[in-house]
Design brief:
The chain has 30 helices and ten strands. The chain has a three-stranded mixed β-sheet with strand order 3-4-5. A three-stranded mixed β-sheet has the order 6-7-8. Strand 7 and strand 8 form a beta hairpin. Helix 1 packs across helix 8, helix 3 packs across helix 19 and helix 9 packs antiparallel against helix 15. Keywords: CBS domain, Chloride, Chloride channel, Ion channel, Ion transport, Membrane, Repeat, Transmembrane, Transmembrane helix, Transport, Voltage-gated channel.
Length: 717
């Protein structure tokens, strides 16, 4: 890497560490004020309730209003949009400075409200914005930062930095960013991502030590599980049950979240009212959640007074709550005492917490504020794992005997495994296990954790898309979905079946009038250039901006005046007139218009009928091309790997069609509708005799028009 790369990565890591620490500091102070208000009003339940409900409502409504006014693009997670941007699609205003400001302030207010919203997704978006802004600044000193492909590499590094500074987990951050955002990952970005993520995580923890939040650089949620014998092989079935259960629960979470969003997007009187009055929906959601978690009320049965980080710390502790319930709390129990209600069993408390927080998290992440789902789902998984761990501790009260020594069950270890499995199921990633290792500072449960995470992924991926892909589908973002492993028909659908055959093109014999009409009739960003209408040999492609500038110059006042002075035989490069002073030309044009009247129009008509001088235009001589028999599988791979928006289809050099991203996306959901059948079951006997090796495919209707063009019986000899 060059020196500028190092400087950029250092600046990115330093900036994001400072932003992350400042956000954590501000949100922590806000939560301290929240709890202080609740404590000071103890004795007056009505005032306590009003303070408990009003405080988060004010912060959430402020975050919603601020983001709506400053940058609506800052609402939500940001990872789905970033996946789309890394795919090569340009989403306007998503990587701007005002989106950065709105995201940071809105997310800080959301985290400071105590609502079940996460930091990880929005912070990945914040890091990407920071990388985009820094690249613009660095482009002043080095032109390489103006290259779009280079900026894509920087955004990949920014994703890793965003996750690393959230959890102080550089290794898990890099792996998670690769799994979530990249279909294909360029190995050259591996080292850059690790360097920036490690530097940012280091600075983030150093700032905590400097502020005396920690004695030294340690894990964010450090655990103290025994290392000599953390678990027994007899516990592996329980860990497997956690993984499988988290797979089903994670898929249901994604389903529930998507249904809430779809209901809110449905055109009804209620949704139109909520759209018009944007603050009502977040206010009502916050009111309901705050009411149910009110500690003197129903919240006492679900540890409602615990803030998100306190929940994680208590769920990961070393105590077995079922053993100490009903007895005086042991020293060092701390905030975990909230889970021990004098009249209600620990199992009921954990179950109520899980059920209530499950739908609260699914609903709260749909509010129009910057919010992520990673941390709420992480807490849900920890609660479920803790519940299973407490059940195991009850079933084996004396522990498990091994080699003459009895080892007690560690419910906290089950909580860590549940947290990794649940987040893995929702995000369809395995790197959550690595993030858990770095969060807790221990890898004692590495084997059961990997088993649980893999099982959770196997179940969840077979039931629902990941949460981020679900949001992409709901928002209809132009992202190319994955092809399923079991869809063998992806090898039997070809480019010729999905391509657009009526291609708008330009030939070397085209006139300026034809060029002008083409630009008015289409919005294509690039236009193919062929040798002639008869041969249709593809010569290259031309950018729309290039053609617009060329066409404008051809009919410009400057060129008309110059041609009248020098005669029609003169031939000047149109690029030399890009910075001509127009004031004199406009005055001359007015004089000519007054004097000649219809002469200008006649001149323009004559110029439009002239043949285009192709030598004056910059042409891309090697646009990406496919042949007609390229399979959908190969086409999908090329589009994903190279980030293509379109490709021309040629046959022996002749342009026969074009396939764009939308055609590939439209074909993928219908791949499963093509299924191979036995030749004799669908083909008449004479057809089998004529085509002995025919491959017959039955098509389940209805299908889109591009597949209906194929015959119901497809033959490949």
């Amino acid at each position: 890497m060059t020196c500028s790369y190092w400087i950029f990565l250092v600046l990115l890591g330093l900036t994001m560490a400072l932003v992350s620490w400042c956000m954590d500091y501000a949100s922590a102070k806000s939560l301290q004020v929240y709890k202080w208000m609740h404590g000071e009003l103890q004795g007056n339940v009505l005032l306590q309730y009003l303070a408990w409900v009003t405080y988060p409502m004010v912060l959430i409504m402020f975050a919603s209003l601020f983001c709506h006014l400053v940058a609506p693009q800052s609402i939500g997670s940001g990872i789905p949009e970033l996946k789309t941007i890394l795919r090569g699609v340009v989403l306007k205003e998503y990587l701007t400075l005002k989106a950065f400001v709105a995201k940071v302030i809105g997310l800080t207010a959301g985290l400071g409200s105590g609502m079940p919203v996460g930091k990880e997704g929005p912070f990945v978006h914040i890091a990407s914005i920071c990388a985009a802004v820094l690249s613009k600044i660095m482009s002043i000193f080095s032109g390489v930062y103006e290259n779009s492909a280079h900026n894509q590499d920087l955004l990949v590094c920014a994703c890793a930095v965003g996750v690393a500074t959230c959890f102080a987990a550089p290794v898990g951050g890099v792996l998670f960013s690769i799994e979530v955002t990249s279909t294909y990952f360029a190995v050259r970005n591996y080292w850059r991502g690790y360097f920036a993520a490690t530097f940012s995580a280091f600075i983030f923890r150093v700032l905590s030590v400097w502020n005396k939040d920690a004695v030294t650089i340690t894990a964010l949620f450090r655990t103290n599980f025994r290392m000599e014998f953390p678990f027994d092989l007899q516990e592996l079935p329980a860990f497997a049950i956690i993984g499988i259960s988290c797979g089903f629960l994670g898929a249901f979470f994604v389903f529930l979240n998507r249904q809430v969003v779809l209901v809110m997007r449905r055109q009804t009187a209620l949704t139109r009212f909520l759209t018009k009055h944007r603050l009502i929906y977040p206010a009502v959601v916050t009111l309901v959640i705050a009411t149910l978690t009110f500690p003197p009320g129903f919240g006492q049965f679900m540890a409602g007074e615990l803030m998100p980080r306190e929940c994680i710390t208590s769920l990961f502790d070393n105590f077995t709550w079922t053993k100490i319930w009903g007895s005086p709390p042991p020293p060092g129990l701390g905030r975990s005492a909230v889970w021990l209600h004098p009249q209600v069993n620990v199992f009921i408390i954990l179950l109520l917490f899980f059920v209530m927080k499950f739908w609260m998290s699914a609903v709260s992440t749909t509010m129009p504020i910057p919010s992520g789902a990673f941390m709420p789902v992480f807490i849900l998984g920890a609660a479920f794992g803790r519940l299973v761990g407490e059940i195991m501790a009850t079933l084996f009260p004396n522990g498990i005997l091994f080699d003459g020594i009895v080892y007690r069950i560690l419910p906290g270890g089950y909580a860590v495994i549940g947290a990794a499995a649940m987040t893995g199921a929702v995000t369809h990633t395995v790197s959550t296990a690595v993030i858990c290792f770095e969060l807790t500072g221990q890898i004692s449960h590495i084997l059961p954790m990997m088993v649980a995470v893999i099982l959770a992924n196997m179940v969840a991926q077979g039931l629902q898309p990941s949460l981020y892909d679900s949001i992409i589908q709901v928002k209809k973002l132009p992202y190319l979905p994955e092809l399923g492993f079991g869809h063998f028909s992806k090898y039997n659908i070809f480019v010729e079946d999905i391509m657009v055959r009526k291609v708008k093109f330009l030939s070397s014999q085209s006139t300026y009038r034809e060029l002008n009409n083409l630009l008015k009739s289409t919005s294509l960003k690039t236009i193919p250039l062929v040798d002639s209408k008869e041969s249709m040999i593809l010569l290259g492609s031309i950018e729309r901006s290039e053609l617009l500038a060329f066409c404008d110059w051809w009919l410009s006042a400057e060129r008309r005046i110059l041609s009248q002075r020098q005669g029609p035989a003169s031939r000047e490069s149109w690029e030399s007139f890009a910075y001509v002073d127009e004031e004199g030309a406009e005055e001359s044009e007015e004089k000519v218009c007054d004097a000649l009247g219809n002469g200008i129009k006649a001149w323009e008509e004559a110029e439009l009928d002239k043949q285009i001088d192709i030598d004056q235009i910059r042409i891309d001589p090697s646009p990406f091309q496919l042949v007609e028999r390229t399979s959908l599988h190969k086409t999908h791979t090329l589009f994903s790997l190279l980030g293509l928006s379109h490709a021309y289809v040629t046959s022996i050099g002749k342009l026969v069609g074009v396939v764009a991203l939308k055609e590939v996306r439209r074909a993928i959901p219908h791949v499963a509708l093509l299924r191979p059948r036995s030749p004799c079951s669908a083909v008449p006997s004479h057809a089998c005799a004529a085509v002995p090796r025919a491959l017959c495919l039955s098509i389940t209707l209805p299908l889109p028009s591009f597949l209906l063009r194929r015959s119901v019986l497809l033959h490949r000899c």
